[in-house]
Fold this protein.
Amino acid sequence: MNLLLVEDDLMLAETVCDGIRQHAWGVDHVSDAVAAKLALVEHAYAAVLLDLGLPGDSGLTVLKWMRERYDSTPVIIMTARGQLSERIRGLDAGADDYVVKPFPFDELLARIRAVTRRAQGRVVPVMRHGDVVLDPSKRLVTRGGVRVSLSAHEYRTLLALLERAGHVVTREHLENVVYGTASSIESNTIAVFVHQLRRKLGDDIITTVHGQGYMIGTPAS
């Protein structure tokens, strides 16, 4: 099990990382929102331990960004902000649990075990288009019952399109889902991912709607 710790207090981060590794879990540590988003784009984690008071941008922004891009990774907020209103904001934004600093390390471990167990038992609807099936709980894509290997970026592009099957999804929205931002991205990047998906899953799976974006399926009435 590999975790992501997003914490700008380096002393606390070192303590938490050491404790996690002693339990034979892996952990990556980043200290700001930009690095957190980059890590989440590049890697899959069993859970995220997220501080709210980050430099430059808040942990709440990272959490909202995750949920907007269909990332259901369990998130435990770790913060010194213990007010009820702050906890409600975090939970409403999609957090799975909340611990207030300072906290006993054994409590954090118990909460990690709890959210990962719930995630494993979570029923997530399987998405289908013809003989193409995407199972979000397993991050598995098959065509005609045969597994299809997709890159993380290709998978997120397909997931975003299937989530809105029958509707046009703009290139800008896909850029935000795949990368978390539409800035500093080559203009043909999404087109490349769509081309690769067509090559792996069939030329007719994704329709280009010129001047608007891309769509899977027939237009919804």
About this structure: Residues 127-215 form a domain with the Arc Repressor Mutant, subunit A fold (CATH 1.10.10.10). The mean pLDDT is 86. Helices lie at 10-22, 33-42, 59-68, 84-92, 105-121, 152-163, 171-179, 189-201.
